[in-house]
């Protein structure tokens, strides 16, 4: 038997021993879980038997309260343990099949050599003395990610440990059997990566803990920086690193940090679902995930129709270079900038003296309180008081005024009339109140007069309640007009942008580029709801955020560290700029920047092709995974033939691969292609509202494919990508392909693809 085989047998023996140990622990914990579960069941069943209920006297009441509370605490303690045990058992089951993926032999200076096995969770021997498996996030495990055999060190809370790594071994273990075992010289050997990357795509992202690369590990374990900026080329593992970073932080700070303290801003709802299984797979709970659009739309509220970011993009991609298009691009650029934020700040300052506008508060089309009266009241307050505090005082004043009006309203004829049409329940309510009143007030009680008053009160309250609620929400502040008036002050340079903005606001619409400034204005005036519980904010696809938006987010999450991940070459919005740092200048100074240049997603021929779409793509390094050269199918006889060719390719590809995506430039084009294909192949259309996707064949607009990957990509109609501004979109679309990329053209081709690029041409 070769030495290698002998080694493998020894390792296989260890895997079996560990599996047995794990099973023993599973059995032990399962027994405990059964006990806790039956305890909890018993408490629930006998909850009220063990509570002393007596509420006659205040003392008895208190005793009852404490008695209930004690039972509730007992129950929730059991429920917590039940949940905890359940989680441990689930992790152990996962460990049993695949206990670890790495081994490092390390000799600390002056100590004996130690063998460390690394897996997705820690596991100790029965006496809880030795680690049989170390969690990948433990300090010592970083040796595995950061060093080849030789001198190595790792950081612990009590200082740096230095020594010598004598062996580094990787495993692929499935169902308790070692399927692959490699001793590696380099950081993380290529064999395992080859195996992982060669697999088919899934509708869900995978964890990468077994093959985290050194530079990715720096992102994951970074603890110091206030702002961590990751500029990484397409497919370099930015999102993967971000998610493993969340798992790392949750583990390292488990006493002080929970998933509730972490938030991820992602590009679209589809992406949210795509990444949602990674953390649970690592035994952690998911953090809150949202999109910036969703946030804005909640803050804008009713009254203005918000154009979403996709509609904005769709407009830009479908338009010719008309005057209107140019104005729109100017508008987007202006409103994305920090300079514009400063203009807005000046405007807000001026509003302290004049310019705030208020809506009249009406009841049944009659004005209860006019906008002018409210304004007059506002500016009668002391101007040294901040706008925010004055608004609070104003709210109180408005409530008081309305209460006065409400009292008078009860006497009006329309109220009496409506009172006759009240429901049985309303009369019952009035009657009960009447009874109570009669009890208190035996002597001088006028039944009839009082009943009439009560009924009138019911009618009037029904009308005033929604008005009062709106007042409490400050809906009487006329933000659209206040925001619109800003555009009367911008001057000649921005006359077209101003006209365009005013026009759209007058139609009660708000463009996507106006949404952030509008919400910012609102926040500055009435006070933002800052999220102080969030300690770590992750912004994926950070290149798609405007400098204005990034500073705004920083203000919203004042106690949070920020991890911004992005790729300037995938900046597909008009405001996208070439700034390497996604941080506006104002925020710079406290940041650390990590650059990822290696692309793992696609095969070498695909990376070589996609990087040449970019003007400066030379720094992008492909991972050495072989595959087919991209193809370009040119059809000069029209759309029908092109679609027929596409159907042929889909059929061929879907027999090999799980996910085949037909990527179109726009949603409009996607819908057309889908209409054509759906009778030929089982295909699904992905739209901006789609929240999840399954494996299979799908048609998707380029910008919704952001962050996601497919086994095979068919790029429909490359002739649609001609403008310089569309280069990055073309790059983004092509870089979604893992194993195969096929481009289709109706003859003209794209000016952005050069003759010299490496692809196979099929005419
Ligand atoms: N260290 C790694 N080990 C295994 N797979 C990896 C590793 N790093 C990245 N990958 C794989 O490469 C692919 C791309 O990763 P990911 O989506 O995180 O990259 P990205 O930089 O966010 O890409 P993009 O910007 O193009 O959306 C995924 O399939 C991911 O699993």
From TrEMBL:
Residues that bind ATP? 232-239
Q: List membrane-spanning regions.
A: none
Q: Which UniProt keywords apply?
A: ATP-binding, Coiled coil, Helicase, Hydrolase, Nucleotide-binding
How is this protein named in the record?
Helicase
Query: What is the organism field in this record?
Result: Robertmurraya kyonggiensis
Give all residue intervals belonging to the UvrD-like helicase ATP-binding domain. Answer: 211-603
Q: Lineage of the native species?
A: Bacteria, Bacillati, Bacillota, Bacilli, Bacillales
Specify the superkingdom: Bacteria
Query: What GO cellular component is one of the record's annotations?
Result: cytosol
| BP-aspect Gene Ontology terms | recombinational repair
Q: Which GO terms describe its molecular function?
A: 3'-5' DNA helicase activity; ATP binding; DNA binding; hydrolase activity
Which segments does the entry list as coiled coil? Answer: 391-425
NCBIfam families in the cross-refs: HelD_BACSU
